[in-house]
Amino acid sequence: MSAMPWIMISVIAGILVVLAIAAMIWKHRRNEYFSKGTDYRAFFWMGLVWVIFGGPVMWLYREFSMSGLFAIGVIFLAMGLANRDKWGKQTKLSKQEANWKIVALIACILLVLAGIIAFEMFYLA
What is Dmax (Cα atoms) for the chain? Predict the structure, then answer.
């Protein structure tokens, strides 16, 4: 029982040391991160993905309490679209990069569909 305060003190001290190191790194690199500005295109794409995944999650669980993903997605979408004039230039992909991007997209779609089918077959059955 007497060892418990020392464990708590050492955990708190460890957290404080990590926070102090993180603050020093953040202060040192602060100008690098903030010089680029906000990427509102990323907010748009994040929102789109969250809406796409949030809708089926609400439908699968049939609960409105699971609508957090969908709501956050709508907020990100709105932020991205409201600042569309501040979007950066879109980079051009080479032919090979574009082909790999299409292959990765198709693979992700197939994995998501397989996951939904497996969930409905084994969990909801």
Answer: 66
Structural domain of 16: 1-36
Rounded to whole angstroms, the Cα distance separating 118 from 79 reads 34
Q: How many domains does the chain have?
A: 3
Dist CA 52 CA 73 (whole Å):
8
The number of beta carbons lying within 10 Å of the beta carbon of residue 9 is 10
pLDDT, tens digit (0-9, with 9 covering 90-100), for 78-103: 999 999 888 877 778 888 988 998 99
The reply to whether 58 and 82 lie within a common domain is: yes
Distance CA 35, CA 1 (A): 51
In a 13 Å sphere around the CA of 22, the CA atoms on its Cβ side amount to 6
Give the span between the Cα atoms of 85 and 37, in whole angstroms: 13
Residue 120 is predicted with a pLDDT of 81
Q: pTM of the entire structure?
A: 0.51
**Tens-place pLDDT, residues 13-38:** 888 888 888 887 777 666 665 556 77
Question: Dihedrals φ, ψ of 98, to 5°?
Answer: -65, -40
